[in-house]
Specification:
Shape: globular
Largest sheet: 6 strands, antiparallel
Strand content: 15-25%
Order of helices and strands: HHEEHEHEEEEHE
Length: about 200
């Protein structure tokens, strides 16, 4: 069994549309870096929010829009100037993040999880959270960190900035959640590695 990395993750709950900044807080804390607030992280990642969010958010770099953009509200990490790697570099955070990895089979996914958890790397899951929703509930793109892989049951524990913070699913569910079968958008995994170990 591949257990939680040591030390374990500390859960942080997300502000609206801030699953990416909140997930990064989980990772920053575990790796011994100062915790930045979600607004500050989000601003660096091109966070876009509905105009009504101005009541909750004070950072002037955050983008407020009256209409929902085509790619939805939230961060814009797919754009280079808003990438997570650029954020790490700008803030002097000694971490590196991989390009998006898209495993197609359980064997590929299993290998990624085992190898990276043995090395104590953080594994981010970028996925559609349909796996946690009832059929009549709206699903959407989401960001979390994989905190455990049990090789005997082949179950994965996801550390989620939405409550409840720890949720367990199968490898098949993970593969479904990153496929394009839900909303036509393929997603995947990112690996975060301390520079001292890269």
């Amino acid at each position: 069994m591949i257990d939680l990395p040591n030390p374990p993750y500390r859960p942080f709950s997300q502000l609206p549309y801030c699953c990416v900044p909140a997930t990064l807080q989980w990772i920053l804390y575990r790796n011994g870096f100062d915790i930045l607030d979600q607004e500050s992280i989000g601003a660096e990642l091109g966070l876009r929010l509905p105009t009504k969010g101005k009541k909750l958010f004070k950072n002037r770099q955050i983008i407020f829009l009256d209409k929902t953009p085509k790619s939805g509200f939230g961060t814009q990490i797919q754009i280079k100037k808003y990438s997570i790697q650029r954020f790490f570099e700008k803030k002097g955070i000694e971490l590196e993040i991989s390009e998006l990895i898209k495993p197609q089979t359980k064997a590929e996914l299993r290998k990624i999880l085992v190898e990276n958890h043995k090395k104590d790397h953080d594994v981010i899951l970028r996925y559609n959270n349909r796996i946690f929703k009832k059929d009549d509930e709206k699903s959407y793109g989401h960001f979390s960190v994989i905190t455990k892989y049990d090789s005997r049951s082949e179950r994965v524990t996801i550390g989620d900035p939405e409550l409840p913070h720890f949720k367990t699913v199968s490898l098949d569910q993970v593969l479904f959640s990153i496929s394009d079968k839900i909303d036509g958008i393929g997603r995947g995994l990112y690996i975060v590695i301390p520079k001292s170990r890269s």
